[in-house]
C-alpha cells in the first residue's frame, strides 16, 4: 500500500528522532516532511496525506504549531496521529496531549502503557519518557480512551495492542534490541501515519504499520551484532520486506469483530 502510493506525511516531532523517523518513512516507501514553523502550517497541511504530532521535545512555539496543524488537518479530514511522549511525566506534556486530543480529534493515538494510562487519568507512572507498564496493563485505559474520543489507540511494548472500542488486535513480534535504540516508538508512530494515509481505515492502517514495524525489528535482529548495526539493518528490512516476511515474523490475535481478521499488514 505505502510503496505503491507513496503518501506524504507531515511530522511535527522531537529533535531526538527527526532523522530516524524520516529515514524509516523513506525506507518504507513514504515521503516525510519535517516542519514546525507556524507560518507555514496551513500551507503544508494542505498538501499532505497525514499528520504526525509527537510531543517529545516541547516548547511554546511548537505547541502552537501542533494545535494549528491539528486543527487544519481535522478540517481537511486527513488522519492525525498523536504520540503523547512522556505524558504523565510533567503537567506540560499531559496538558498538551489533552489539548491536541480536543483540538485535532486524532484518528490514532500511539503510546506506551504509562502514556496511555496518563491520558485516561489512571496514573500509569513513567520513568522519564519510558514506560513502567506493559501494554497489557493499559488495555482497559486504551479501550476507554478509544470509546471516549472515537479513535484508534495503539499501546506498544513487548507486545502491541490496537483497539478501536469494539475490536482489538494483539501483535507479537519484533526484538528486545528495539528497546536499545532511541526513537523506536516514535518510528512506529510515523509509520502509522503513512499506513493510515492509504489504508481503508485507521484501524487497519495501524495494525499494518505495527506488523511492519515488528517484522523489521525481527529481521534486523537476525543480522545485528548490537544496537548500532540493528538500526542499519532495520532500515534495510523496511525497504526489502515482503508479505511472506510479515507472515513469518508476526503473530496477530484478533478479538471483537471477525472482519478485523482480514485487516492484516501489507507493504
UniProtKB/TrEMBL annotation:
Gene Ontology terms: biological process: thiamine biosynthetic process; thiamine diphosphate biosynthetic process
Gene3D superfamilies from the UniProt entry: 3.40.1190.20
GO terms of molecular function: ATP binding; hydroxyethylthiazole kinase activity; magnesium ion binding
Catalytic activity: 5-(2-hydroxyethyl)-4-methylthiazole + ATP = 4-methyl-5-(2-phosphooxyethyl)-thiazole + ADP + H(+)
Sites where the protein binds substrate: 34, 183
Cofactor(s), by name: Mg(2+)
Keyword Transferase in record: yes
EC top class named in words: transferase
Classification via Pfam families: HK
Organism superkingdom: Bacteria
Binding site for ATP: 110, 156
Pathway: Cofactor biosynthesis; thiamine diphosphate biosynthesis; 4-methyl-5-(2-phosphoethyl)-thiazole from 5-(2-hydroxyethyl)-4-methylthiazole: step 1/1
Enzyme Commission code(s) on record: 2.7.1.50
Role this protein plays: Catalyzes the phosphorylation of the hydroxyl group of 4-methyl-5-beta-hydroxyethylthiazole (THZ).
Protein name: Hydroxyethylthiazole kinase
Species annotation: Desulfovibrio subterraneus
Taxon lineage: Bacteria, Pseudomonadati, Thermodesulfobacteriota, Desulfovibrionia, Desulfovibrionales
Amino acid at each position: 500500500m505505502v510503496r505503491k502510493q507513496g503518501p506524504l506525511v507531515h511530522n511535527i516531532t522531537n529533535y531526538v528522532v527527526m532523522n530516524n523517523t524520516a529515514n524509516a518513512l523513506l525506507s518504507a516507501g513514504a515521503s516525510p516532511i519535517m516542519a514546525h514553523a507556524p507560518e507555514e502550517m496551513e500551507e503544508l497541511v494542505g498538501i499532505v496525506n497525514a499528520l504526525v504530532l509527537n510531543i517529545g521535545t516541547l516548547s511554546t512555539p511548537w505547541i502552537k504549531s501542533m494545535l494549528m496543524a491539528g486543527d487544519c488537518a481535522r478540517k481537511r479530514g486527513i488522519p492525525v496521529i498523536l504520540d503523547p511522549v512522556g505524558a504523565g511525566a510533567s503537567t506540560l506534556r499531559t496538558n498538551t496531549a489533552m489539548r491536541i486530543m480536543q483540538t485535532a480529534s486524532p484518528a490514532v493515538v500511539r503510546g506506551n502503557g504509562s502514556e496511555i494510562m496518563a491520558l485516561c487519568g489512571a496514573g500509569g507512572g513513567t520513568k522519564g519518557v519510558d514506560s513502567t507498564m506493559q501494554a497489557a496493563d493499559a488495555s482497559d485505559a486504551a479501550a476507554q480512551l478509544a470509546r471516549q474520543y472515537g479513535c484508534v489507540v495503539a499501546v506498544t511494548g513487548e507486545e502491541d495492542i490496537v483497539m478501536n472500542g469494539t475490536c482489538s488486535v494483539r501483535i507479537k513480534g519484533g526484538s528486545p534490541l528495539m528497546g536499545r535504540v532511541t526513537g523506536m516508538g516514535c518510528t512506529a508512530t510515523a509509520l502509522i501515519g503513512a499506513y493510515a494515509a492509504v489504508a481503508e481505515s485507521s484501524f487497519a492502517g495501524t495494525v499494518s504499520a505495527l506488523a511492519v514495524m515488528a517484522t523489521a525489528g525481527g529481521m534486523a535482529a537476525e543480522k545485528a551484532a548490537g544496537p548500532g548495526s540493528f538500526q542499519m539493518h532495520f532500515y534495510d528490512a523496511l525497504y526489502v520486506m515482503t508479505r511472506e516476511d510479515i507472515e513469518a515474523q508476526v503473530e496477530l490475535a484478533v478479538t471483537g469483530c471477525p472482519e478485523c481478521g482480514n485487516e492484516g499488514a501489507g507493504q
